Fold this protein.
Amino acid sequence: MTTRIKRRVCVLGSTGSVGKNTLEIVRQQPDRFEIVGLACGSSVDLLLAQIEEFGPPFVSLGSSKLAGELREKVPSGVEIFSGFMGHRDLVEQCRADVVMASMSGTHGLLATLQAIRQNVSVLGIANKEILVMAGAYINEALEGSQTKLVPVDSEHSAIFQSLMGNSRAEVSKIILTASGGPFRNLDKLSFSKITKAQALQHPNWVMGSKITIDSATMMNKGLEYIEAIRLFQLKPDQIEIVVHPQSIIHSMVEYQDHSVMAQLGLSDMRIPISLALAYPDRLAIELGQKIDFASIAQLSFERPDFERFPCLALAIEAQKMGDQGPVILNASNEVAVAAFLNDQISFVEIPQLIENALQYFADRKAISLDSVLVLDEEVRSWSNQMVDNSLNSEWGNKYHELVN
């Protein structure tokens, strides 16, 4: 009997939704995986609990202050890094076979590039933001690397699986499915009254707060549209977005002979996560339930409403602007979503802020990774200033009084 060698796993964003689900799979498969690195932004207590359970030799936190606090609590022998460069150094030192890039926003970009440069076997990407803002540089790094990129977004994992064994040259188009979020049938006139609590109630998926709001605005699908172009090297007109409220079909690929391949499954992130961890194998995992086709009344589809969900239209337009467009889109959206979650702006102000940012920075170029990072920081700073200006306006003061 052959002894299976454990895969060494590093999780960037271990305290987030994808990170916790990744560790759940590892917990179920102790003979298959070993955690060698964990990184998060600021959740010290949860990270400490994960260190105690999985015993990684390397960890990283978002700030040196938090890293200092953690250092006083962890066992001797655990090496602690901090900041953007710390996340990168973590990847370099832990020598993982699989790196799960699930850190929210742009925090994991340098660490993700480091994973590719040192030829980790599998890079699972659950962080769509870094592909949106720096997809060209990730693809460039992959060209000279032995790393296999396996997408972890449910939609892109579905596309990845539907492409298995087929030629990319034979692809006619990708059909990217969207649930439509919690406001699919809400009258447009009611959007100005949407509350944070309502926006955080996704009908099908349990996710982190940022991606849940992105789903409510349908920006999530816009980011996935851009990400699909980057991941699968397709033209924009080869990607069609359809709303599929049941979230059973996670996406489809149509080939030139009009055959359509689809991946179906439960709305559970552990499915694409397990594929990334074990690729090219599939794991026997316990989800607590199975899909019951006999109980599914229908699978329905409809076209997205770009007027009621302007964030989706903004993402498509941003992609047309060139490399700077997705950078501006992503940075301003992250600020807008954070401001909405902090009760600083209304739901309808999210697309307004993004559109203003796209117009303000339209002439800027992103011709190198350094210029991408500079532009990203400038858009965030400008967007935060716009949020502050909104709060100080007469309308902003009334809104702030209302939500508090």
